[in-house]
Amino acid sequence: MILFVAIFGLTGCFMQPVWIPIEVIENKCEMGDREICIRLGSDYLYGAKGLNKDYAKAKRYFENIYNDKPKNDLIYFEACLGLGFMYTYGLGVEKSYEKAFELYSISCNGGHIVACTNIGTMYYTGKGVQKDAIKGVEYFKQTCDLGRWDGCVKIATHYLHSDKTKALQYLKKSCELGKNDQGVQRLSHENEMWKEACQAYEELK
After folding, report:
1. How many CB atoms lie within 10 A of CB 205?
2. Is the pLDDT of residue 194 over 90?
3. How many CB atoms neighbour CB 110 within 10 A?
4. Angle at CA 159, nearest 5°, toward 155 and 163?
5. Which of 39, 154, 179, 188 is deepest in the core (most CB within 10 A)?
6. For position 205, what pLDDT does the model report?
7. Which long-range contacts (CB under 8 A, 24 or more apart) does 35-41 make?
8. End-to-end CA distance of the chain
9. What pairs with residue 10 in β-bridges?
10. Cβ–Cβ < 8 Å for 19, 5
């Protein structure tokens, strides 16, 4: 079966879908197109853009970037994030919080704030690293201040039973930030978490 994937091109003044066989797109990755590789890795990981989830392919495309050069750009740090996610949940790999922490750290140090939120979670829960809730909250605050809605959710959860005013403040901010977040719009698990945060805000205010 040949699977076709839609990309968008301009025809006159209108955006029109251009259907390209997935084999053609995958070949571009194999020929060294790192941007295509990272998109394929993400789409196979989450089952996006009409592709079924395929953790083996996601791992291969992320590792193509991880094992190649350069190792200091956004695409590389995105690949580290994707691999970290896979090791966190054991998706196509043996679950390893330690390996996930290592990969998230590379990505976070490179400026990827999603990875920094995940580092915060690992410090907060003590998975893959010695537990340090204070340090975890510091990461959450940093990413929330930089516009990550999920960082705000995690701070709100921290304050939920000790400071309702702060919890409400961060839940509200999370709800507002998530409205324009691509992950919330594209990924079902993020969309569900964001909706729960907004519902919690409405119930607590």
Report:
1. 9
2. yes
3. 18
4. 140
5. 154
6. 83
7. 35/75, 37/61, 37/62, 37/64, 37/65, 37/75, 37/79, 38/62, 38/65, 38/75, 38/78, 38/79, 38/82, 41/65, 41/79, 41/82
8. 52
9. 15
10. yes
pLDDT at residue 182 is higher than 70: yes
Confidence class of residue 19 from pLDDT cuts 50, 70 and 90? low
| Whether 27 contacts 68, CB under 8 Å | no
Do you know the residue count of the chain?
205
Residues 15-43, buried b or exposed e (16+ Cβ, 10 A)?
eeeeeeebeebbeebeeeebebbbbbbbb
User: pTM for this structure?
Assistant: 0.85
CA distance 81 to 102: 10
Residue linked to tokens 């304050």? 159
The single residue listed with the structure tokens 């394929």 is 40
Residue 187 vs residue 15, higher pLDDT: 187
Q: What single letter denotes the amino acid at residue 2?
A: I
pLDDT in tens, 89-132: 999 999 999 999 999 999 999 999 999 999 999 999 999 999 99
